[in-house]
Amino acid sequence: MKKTILALACLAVTQIGWSQKPSPALLNPTNHTLVLIDHEGQMAFATKSVDPIQLRNNTGLVAGASKIFNVPTVVTTVAERTFSGPVFPEILEFYPNTADYIDRTTMNTWEDVNAFKAITGKGKKKIVLAGLWTSVCIVGPALSALSDGYEVYVITDACGDISAEAHNQAITRMVQAGAKPITALQYLLELQRDWARKETYVPVNDLAQRFGGGYGIGIQYARQMLKH
After folding, report:
1. Using CA of residue 49, residue 53, residue 54, residue 55, what is the dihedral sign?
2. Distance between CA atoms of 180 and 160, rounded to whole angstroms?
3. Active-site residue identified among 137, 155, 174, 185
4. Does residue 33 contact residue 72 with C-beta atoms inside 8 Å?
5. How many helices (H) and strands (E) would you count in the chain?
6. pLDDT digit string, tens, across residues 170-197
7. Distances from the Cα of 206 to the Cαs of 14, 144, 201, in angstroms?
8. Angle between helical axes of 52-68 and 198-211 (0-180°, round to 10)
9. 137 belongs to the catalytic site
10. What pTM does this model have?
11. Whole-number Cα distances in Å, 158 to 17, 83, 211
12. What value, to the nearest 5°, has the Cα angle with vertex 216 and ends 131 and 49?
């Protein structure tokens, strides 16, 4: 009887241990590189697959999350001074040093030598992409990185294209090739993962309250009405 009880106890402990081990497919602050691609005015003017306010808010969630959690991040632009213009204010706020941005002529970031070195030089096997336009500037590096053996995640609602059709087909193409689609708020909460992580608890909630739409309003309500 004692042996049976001991065996059951060991089994329970083992199962608890298993339940506490997160999937390696989940993102955390240290296992990936974030690449923000061409969130620029000229690219946004023609973007029709997502409302521009929502696009900016989602981009703010992503940029802010990466800053809070010190995620290795590459900001890259295309023809910034001659055509596409500056990046969104939501990126400039968190990454104000534009000298660190990598400007390109290539539509595929992976084919630019400086951008390629900056991304792969971070030493992470997971790469998270967001940018404009989905069917060109995201598909190119996504398929290229997958071909080179990287795990690729695409933040679909921080991307956009000239039509819903263009955006959706691009996402389908990348998913079929092995990319993993996620959303901006999912990205933020996946990095936080545990509300007991007090060092990031307040900044994460502040960011969500600002850019998180209805969820953010809920945080504001809870803070005021529940004194949380």
Report:
1. positive
2. 16
3. 137
4. yes
5. 10, 6
6. 999 999 999 999 999 999 999 999 999 9
7. 38, 36, 9
8. 170
9. yes
10. 0.90
11. 36, 21, 12
12. 30
